[in-house]
């Protein structure tokens, strides 16, 4: 038995600029290799870099022919200035002249079932997902999830700076937040429980505690779809806040959070954005339209008649985003005042027209990425609306007690991490922005 003093861990990043001509050691995985007559290249992948290293056959202690991609190795070498064109390499202005290579581990199956050393990962989605532990190592695939990680972290940073408190709510719950049937049920010590389809109830409760809260969490939707827009398990970026005058404060907050996120992506994911050839959007201005006005505009501008529908179709979302881009030079459209019968029971109706709600969706590049709005805050209003919608207030007692004790006017929204990531990365299927997607047909890997 012994006590061990705390040992500080330093950054693994290398100050290449100040180490030119000096020897360093770096550890990682072999992403790719090129063996030439005079020597060759080993591309080394680790948490910080996809680094080009170069060797001459006359000056090495290893057999290049014996090396396997996806082996873990340690390289000792001299830092050299370089000019590298390959966008998959980072950094591109330095390389390592190899002195020594030590193999730490090797793959037991070789060659691999897929070649991830190519510039493009040209496989269909099912193959991509079947071999996910391998395909995720491809530079472009890694870039998607570096961008996703930055969005996720920046969301919390932006809200923390605005005075929000992060919360963590249960994912085993007594009822679905939407009051519908699209929930996964399970047995819970002789009772029926459900996997949370939203942290909605809990973040509302916590507005009474902290006034402004946010949560980042997995949510579950038991919907039997298999489309490019949906997942049965996805990651939701939620916040809930006390408002002073209008539900529009929620929208303004979201616009500021997205602006913060895009700024962080620009500085922290420049390599990944360049590799994916992504142009970041700007939300310095955005369009706000009422639901009925969207119907009218689409009919007038495109000759498509959706008037009378109580929701927006995928085609209508794409068309109105195209209209916003062409006429207002923005990729963001807030659609407000959705019909009451298409919004959950906790949504506040518009006092001027109770058939509409003080709610919104945010559309981006033809797809809804955020749903939000003002909530009811009086107990009596909840009971009345639930009875009107055929819901039993008794089934929601633990949630409704919050409003018996007094609550401020409040509202919030939820943004799907996979959706916004996919759209930023120009991916047509939201599953490509999920590490291990879950849909009606897929439960592995």
Task: Tell me about this structure.
It is a single chain. 28% of the residues lie in helices and 27% in strands. The protein has an 8-stranded mixed β-sheet, with helices on both faces. A 5-stranded mixed β-barrel has the order 1-2-3-5-4. Strands 7-9-8 form a 3-stranded antiparallel β-sheet, with no helix packed on it. Helix 3 crosses helix 5, helix 3 crosses helix 11 and helix 7 (291-302) packs across helix 8 (314-328). The chain has 2 domains: 16-105, Nucleic acid-binding proteins (OB fold (Dihydrolipoamide Acetyltransferase, E2P), Beta Barrel), CATH 2.40.50; 139-433, BirA Bifunctional Protein, domain 2 (2-Layer Sandwich). It is elongated. The chain is α+β, with helices and mostly antiparallel strands and 445 residues long. The mean pLDDT is 95. It is built from 11 helices and 18 strands.
């Amino acid at each position: 038995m012994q006590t061990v003093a705390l040992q500080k861990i330093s950054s693994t990043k290398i100050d290449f600029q100040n180490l030119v001509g000096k020897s360093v050691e770096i550890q990682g995985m072999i992403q790719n290799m090129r063996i030439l007559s005079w020597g060759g290249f080993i591309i080394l992948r680790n948490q910080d870099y996809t680094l080009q290293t170069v060797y001459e056959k006359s000056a090495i202690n290893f057999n290049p022919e014996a090396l396997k991609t996806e082996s873990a190795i340690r390289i000792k070498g001299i830092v050299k200035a370089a000019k590298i064109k390959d966008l998959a390499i980072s950094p591109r202005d330095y390389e390592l002249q190899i002195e020594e290579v030590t193999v730490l581990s090797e793959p037991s199956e070789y060659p691999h079932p897929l070649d991830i050393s190519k510039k493009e990962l040209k496989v269909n989605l099912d193959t991509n997902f079947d071999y996910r532990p391998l395909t995720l190592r491809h530079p472009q695939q890694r870039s998607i999830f570096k961008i996703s990680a930055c969005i996720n972290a920046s969301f919390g940073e932006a809200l923390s700076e605005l005075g929000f408190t992060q919360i963590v709510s249960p994912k085993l719950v007594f009822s679905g937040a939407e009051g519908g049937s699209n929930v996964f049920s399970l047995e819970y010590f002789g009772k029926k429980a459900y996997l949370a389809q939203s942290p909605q109830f809990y973040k509302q409760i916590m507005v009474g505690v902290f006034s402004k809260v946010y949560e980042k969490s997995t949510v579950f939707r038991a919907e039997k779809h298999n489309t490019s827009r949906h997942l049965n398990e996805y990651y939701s970026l939620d916040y809930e806040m006390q408002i002073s005058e209008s539900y529009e404060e929620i929208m303004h907050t979201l616009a500021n959070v997205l602006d913060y996120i895009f700024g962080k992506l620009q500085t922290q994911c420049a390599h990944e954005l360049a590799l994916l050839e992504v142009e970041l959007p700007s939300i310095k201005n955005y369009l706000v339209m009422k639901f009925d006005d969207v119907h009218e505009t689409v009919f007038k501008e495109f000759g498509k008649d959706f008037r009378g529908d109580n929701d927006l179709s995928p085609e209508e979302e794409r068309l109105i985003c195209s209209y916003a881009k062409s006429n207002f030079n923005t990729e963001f459209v807030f659609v407000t005042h959705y019909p009451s019968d298409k919004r959950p029971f906790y949504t506040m109706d518009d006092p001027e027209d109770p058939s509409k709600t003080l709610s919104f969706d945010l559309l981006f590049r033809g797809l809804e990425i955020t749903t939000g709005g003002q909530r009811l805050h009086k107990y009596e209003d909840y009971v009345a609306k639930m009875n009107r919608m055929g819901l039993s207030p008794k089934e929601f007692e633990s949630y409704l007690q919050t409003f018996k004790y007094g609550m401020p006017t409040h509202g919030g929204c939820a943004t799907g991490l996979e959706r916004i990531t996919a759209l930023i990365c120009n991916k047509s299927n939201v599953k490509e922005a999920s590490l291990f997607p879950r849909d009606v047909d897929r439960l592995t890997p």
